[in-house]
Amino acid sequence: MVVVQALQSFEHNGPRKREAIFHVSEPVAIRLSEAGLVKIVSHGAEVAPAKNPPSAAGNPSSASPAAQASQRKTSSEYVGGAKKRRRKSLEASSL
After folding, report:
1. Is pLDDT at 46 greater than 60 in this prediction?
2. Which of 4, 18, 30, 50 has the greatest number of CB atoms lying within 10 Å of its CB?
């Protein structure tokens, strides 16, 4: 496997963002490089972890835990198993 770095955003087995580092086979790396989408970083070497800031020891994250989504309620033509009754229009009742 060859390690490459994206020079611009593109689609290849999912979205690849600019400066993303990922592994591809050698033929794919050559084709992407010829197309000007990536630069070859190394052949088969380990990739350093992405630019993630180190977490501070002992400090909790400021992110809130995810909440459960509420179920969407939709109106139905049938209420309690029976069809809703509709009022007759004024014109029909006056005849």
Report:
1. no
2. 4
